[in-house]
Amino acid sequence: MKSLLGICCLLVFSFPLVALAHPHILSMSSGEEISFSTLLDDLQDVRVVFVGELHDNVGHHRMQQAVISGLQSRQKSVAVGLEMFQQESQPKLDRWVAGKTRERTFRKIFEDNWSYWPVYRPIFLDARRLATPMVGLNIPRELVQKGAKAGVAALLEGELGPLKGISCVVDPAYEAVLRRAMGGHSGEGRSFYFFCEAQLLWDTAMAKKIVDYLRDNPQAVMVVLAGNTHAWKHGIPTQVVRQANLSYRVVLPEVQGRLDRNSIRPEDADYLWLDFGVDGWQP
Predict the structure, then answer these.
(1) Which residues 6+ apart lie within 8 Å of 250 measured at CB?
(2) How many CB atoms lie under 10 A from the CB of residue 249?
(3) Backbone phi, then psi, for 157, in 5-degree steps?
(4) Neighbours of 53 (CB within 10 A)
(5) What percent of the chain is modeled with pLDDT above 70?
(6) Of 12, 81, 90, 113, which is most buried, counting CB atoms within 10 Å of its CB?
């Protein structure tokens, strides 16, 4: 029985290569399905690749791992940007990649920053095995929460590290984008405006970290792992372009009823990884 359970766990969390055999990828520019190799042909020529996710979806993390590994197989110098790690935790992340922290210890560090370690674990193990730089992009969650409750002006009055020098102006178009992203469950009035401010601030601060890293590492391409509402073009990518005009592509996983082949538009993403079967993968 123990052996059977071990095999089951291995199948669930090791992201087997056979699962990558037949991804279905929709190009938003042509409206046609393309091969994974064709996708990599395009991604290898940009500085930032945003790959979205639903945080608890195993298939979405397999997709992310496939993109990272695919670019590395083409001899690209890849760094992995992480929404799920705060910038202030960077030294601890560096120690993990360098092999100086045991997994049991690092899991606690990860869970101080985020959740769902089992579904992220293969990506982190690969990074340590290959010494792939991992970059924490996030700002302390209490700042985002405070901004959502009281507005960004309440935050920007003080010295707040990663927020220093950042401005936050929400226009009607951005509000409309967030309402669409939330499927019409966004609320109204001042509270929703504060939410928009906090989301924009969050995207802008993460974009600044991406720009700073790539400025210091001109040969690198960064694969950014973030939730769909940060990874799509209206989120972090727009803020990256405003700060540095870096070339980028956005790859989003299909989410039925929210972000799917019937509702997505070229201004949302460059590619949609289609949802076939369990966890977004073709059996």
Answers:
(1) 50, 52, 231, 232, 233, 237, 268, 269, 270, 271
(2) 20
(3) -75, -20
(4) 25
(5) 70
(6) 81
Angle 189-216/141-150 helices, nearest 10 degrees?
150
Strands 48-51 and 25-27: unpaired
Asked whether the beta carbons of 225 and 81 are under 8 A apart, the reply is yes
Q: Is the pLDDT of residue 219 over 60?
A: yes
Conformation bin of residue 93: beta by default, left when phi > 0, alpha when psi is -120 to 50: alpha
Give the per-residue pLDDT at 182.
62
Binning pLDDT at 50, 70 and 90, where does residue 257 land? confident
Sign for the CA dihedral angle at 194, 196, 200, 203 comes to positive
CATH architecture of structural domain 2-280: 3-Layer(aba) Sandwich (3.40)
pLDDT at position 278 is 45
Backbone angles phi, psi at 110, to 5 degrees: -60, -45
- Residue scoring higher pLDDT (10 or 266): 266
User: Rounded to whole angstroms, how far apart are CA atoms 134 and 125?
Assistant: 11
Residues 6+ apart with CB under 8 A from 86: 113, 136, 138, 139, 140, 141
Tokens of 150: 């009281």
User: How many secondary structure helices (H) and strands (E) does the chain include?
Assistant: 12, 8
Question: Mean pLDDT, the chain, as a whole number?
Answer: 82
pTM summary value: 0.82
Side chain identity, residue 196: C
Task: Let me know: does 273 contact 279? Beta carbons within 8 Å.
Answer: no
Domain boundaries, the chain: 2-280
Please give the pLDDT value at position 148: 53
3-state SS, residue 193: helix
CB 229 within 8 A of CB 235: yes
